[in-house]
Design goal:
It contains twelve helices and 22 strands. The chain is α/β, with parallel strands linked by helices. Helix 2 packs across helix 12, helix 7 crosses helix 12 and helix 8 packs across helix 9.
């Protein structure tokens, strides 16, 4: 064999996706991005993401599931859990005990939650909201940027008030102030982690004192009276609220070639969107039932009633299978793509990654055999056989994909919902879109990788093993 032939046959050299796709496919890459940008603009919290996903699903023929309802192949159903997680399914031709194709993504993102008693007035009539951060954030990134307030307040009469301030044109926004560099000598000498502390993440929300009032906290009283007029909420009602402070940035194209998308919450709403899109795109009746779960609480350990460790998923699957023992058999024969973002190699911070084992922006959807930290601890570590079958499925559909790893050995680490699906005896592998500036208020992904994530999940749903 000529050396050139040998090289082509034996060496594996991943290529930039744009060197591998046709003109027509390039147009599809840019088209797919528009649908996602609309989704991300609306899905700013897990509750918003569930509502948006359900709205899209209903337009695609999905109906609410109830236990015992008669299902026939091709039927499309969904069920919502406490407004913060959702499962969708397309019923397949095969018996469920032969296994399902499961897509699992999460719809919560790092943010600042309001404390139960958030509001206070500080010196000279400045009013603030105290926060407790949610998920892994670099605290300094949250100062000196525009912020919005979103969430719900549950009242004692059973009513729930929806709060959304900052997103609509003309809305006020909020901010966390930072120190001017002129007086930043002591702050600049601290580490990045200590420069702005958790207790300093206080959001400025007002400054005009109540007129004709002699008491304390006049500016706070004025803000509370505004909230009472607009929303009917009193200070005590913050005790039963889920209000979050999130970045107030529009979802935008990044770069002169518009190849990238910037926005808040790509982790993991880009994979959540890809998963529902793949489910919607199933034409007719799939061989295996396709199930998509969009879970909450991944960023804090997949715990709680709406997290991936919750029995919510098992209850739905047990009902679908007709009992727990059938569900266990179904799990044993099922495969799951844990659809969560991976880190994109960042040349500016090249030293934290192994360049031979990194995912790159524009090199396609990333597979991760394992995640974890310190010797793969906490990782799902997918079976070689599963990866082999998936490689074949992706290659047969010309999906551009790559294998990645979360940084150099012992550089850090992280996890996904994969291990909780693995614990259920479901063969699982991590797959996701590479992200630059992951967990920052403004994250960046490549449109090509988003498109390939959708195509990969579609190819997975079409597998007939
Ligand atoms: Mn994630
Ligand atoms: Mn994350």
């Amino acid at each position: 064999m000529e050396h050139k032939e040998l090289r082509e046959k034996l060496l594996y050299t991943p290529k930039n996706g744009y060197d591998r796709i046709s003109e027509e496919e390039r147009r599809n890459v840019f088209k797919a991005a528009e649908g996602y940008k609309t989704f991300l603009s609306r899905a700013k919290t897990e509750r918003d993401a569930v509502m948006t996903a359900v709205e899209l699903a209903e337009a695609e023929g999905f109906v609410p599931y109830s236990r015992g309802m008669k299902l026939t192949p091709g039927d499309r159903v969904y069920t919502v859990n406490h407004g913060k997680s959702v499962i969708l399914a397309v019923i397949g031709r095969d018996n469920l005990q032969e296994g399902a194709h499961i897509l699992a993504a999460h719809i919560d993102s790092p943010r600042l939650d309001l404390k139960p008693m958030p509001m206070y007035e500080d010196r000279k009539e400045l009013v603030y909201l105290k926060t407790h951060y949610y998920g892994g954030i670099k605290k300094y990134q949250w100062a000196a940027i525009p912020l919005e307030l979103r969430g719900v307040v549950a009242l004692t009469d059973g009513g729930v008030v929806n709060v959304e301030i900052g997103a609509k044109p003309g809305d006020p926004v909020f901010t966390i102030t930072d120190l001017l560099p002129h007086l930043g000598k002591d702050q600049s000498a601290k580490t990045l982690a200590e420069g702005i502390s958790g207790e300093a993440l206080n959001v400025l929300i007002g400054s005009i004192p109540m007129a004709d009032d002699e008491g304390a906290d006049r500016a706070k009283l004025a803000i509370l009276s505004y909230l009472y007029e607009q929303y009917g909420i009193r200070e005590e009602d913050f005790l039963s609220a889920e209000l979050s402070i999130i970045p107030n940035f529009p979802v935008s194209d990044v770069g002169l070639d518009r190849s990238l998308i910037g926005g808040y919450g790509h982790d993991d709403r880009c994979c959540a969107y890809s998963a529902i899109r793949a489910l919607f795109d199933i034409g007719g009746v799939p061989a295996k039932t396709a199930v998509c779960v969009l879970a909450d609480k991944e960023e804090i350990g997949s715990v709680g009633v709406t997290g991936m460790q919750s029995q919510f998923f098992d209850t739905f699957m047990s009902n679908l299978c007709g009992g727990d023992c059938f569900m266990r058999e179904c799990y044993a024969n099922s495969t799951c793509l844990s659809a969560d973002v991976c880190n994109a190699f960042d040349p500016i911070y090249a030293e934290v990654s192994d360049p031979r084992n990194s995912a790159y922006a524009n090199y396609g959807v990333g597979l991760m055999k394992y995640t974890g930290a310190r010797g793969k601890s906490g990782s799902n570590d997918a079976n070689a056989e599963l990866i082999g079958a998936l490689r074949a499925a992706l290659d047969s559909k010309n999906v551009v994909w790559q294998m990645g790893e979360l940084g150099k050995v012992d550089q850090g680490g992280g996890g996904t919902v994969a291990c909780y699906m693995g614990n259920r005896n479901i063969s699982t592998i991590d797959i996701g879109i590479p992200v630059l500036s992951m967990h920052a208020p403004y994250e960046v992904i490549a449109k090509l990788d988003l498109y390939m994530a959708i195509r990969a999940m579609s190819a997975f749903c079409a597998m007939e093993e």
